[in-house]
Amino acid sequence: MDEVVGAIADAVRREILVMLRGEALSAGEIAGRFEISRPAVSRHLRVLRGAGLVRDVVEGRRRVYTLETGPLEEVAGWLGRLMGPSGWQHRLDALETEVYRTRRERQSAAGRERAAGLEGDAGRERIDRETA
User: Fold this and answer.
1) Which residues pair with 63 in a beta bridge?
2) Strands of 62-67's sheet, edge to edge?
3) Is 106 exposed, middle or buried (0-12, 13-18, 19+ CB in 10 A)?
4) How far are the Cα atoms of 24, 51, 73, 129 from residue 4, in angstroms, in the given order?
5) Which of 60, 82, 91, 109 is deepest in the core (most CB within 10 A)?
């Protein structure tokens, strides 16, 4: 994981990963999108390849790179444990629980009405008196 984190610590390497997210690109195509030298881009690609974040395939005289997301899963899992659920997540979970509880209570009351052969407000009032 340390090698992956070190690789993504650089802004140029992160940009290369984003570029490769949607398509495979040759080293020349990648280098053409930066204002830095081709040898500098080549060094960045070497670091990414060493961390397992990109894979390269030789096609004729070109080296084509593709994104490998597997090594990022460990980092994402670690970050998820570090961050934990947000305060909002706890509130939304509580709301979801309350919605399900209310829905069960209403379904249960409707079932008692049907079983008793009662409908409407009068039937609900009778059931409420009986269950209270």
Assistant:
1) 58
2) 25-26, 62-67, 54-59
3) exposed
4) 20, 5, 10, 65
5) 109
List the chain pLDDT tens, one digit each, 132 residues: 888 888 889 999 999 999 999 899 988 899 889 889 989 999 999 999 999 999 999 888 889 999 998 899 888 888 887 776 666 777 888 889 999 999 998 888 888 877 777 555 555 566 566 655
Q: Quote the CA–CA distance of 23 and 3 in Å, as a whole number.
A: 24
Tokens matching residue 69? 């997301």
List own/partner pairs for 53-56 with CB under 8 A and 24 or more apart. 53/4, 53/7, 53/8, 53/17, 54/16, 54/17, 54/20, 56/27
Cβ within 8 Å of residue 79, ≥6 positions away: none
Helix ranges (DSSP H) in the chain: 2-8, 11-22, 27-32, 38-50, 70-83, 87-116, 120-131
